[in-house]
Amino acid sequence: MIRVLLVDDQPLIRSGFRALLDLEDDIEVVAEAADGEQGLALTRQHLPDVALIDIQMPVVDGIEATRRIAADPALASVHVVILTNYGMDEYVLDALRAGAAGFLVKDIVPDDFVHAVRVAARGDALLAPSITRKLIKHYVTQPLSAVAGTGLEELTGREREAVTLVAQGLSNDQVAARMVISPVTAKTHINRAMTKLHARDRAQLVVLAYESGLVTPRNS
Q1: In a 10 Å sphere around its CB, with 0-12 CB exposed, 13-18 middle and 19+ buried, how is residue 46 labelled?
Q2: Percent helix, strand, coil in the chain (nearest 5)?
Q3: pLDDT tens digits for 193-217?
């Protein structure tokens, strides 16, 4: 059973998402919150698999809530998915840096929304190819971050290759096919790269890959 927490200051949005998720046999909405502070408290109380958090809320906004969840070792199993009305903007980049597993635009198709919850619950990043292209466009004009480069020298050649493919938006199976290895081996390379780069999840791994210069728009 996938346990979900809904955090949004608009009751209509929460009730709509709950109605969709309640139709699924393998998903349970364990709680709802109307602001980030209440969402943090309920996250600690219920330890959901997925926390769907609005990016703009009173008291504590979605980015700060995400940052606090990511910084708490007791909440390491919680995958934060940011909800936004606007798609790819500077707030979303900040949320990914803070530790979000990805983000969803609120006008998402219902079937895609439910699928996204399942994807987030199993630890995969919600970064569709279209979103990855926007990330690439953003980093074309941005200076490299020396801080983000910590740990790059520890990556093996295969780990670097795997990270490059993940940054293109490929799944584990697609990475495995491209590298001509098993999905289990691909996942091992990716997980080791995440550990060495101190990335909380795949979404943060993608951001670190671009910010450090390990992956550039040229090889994406």
Answers
A1: middle
A2: 55, 15, 30
A3: 988 887 777 777 877 777 777 776 5
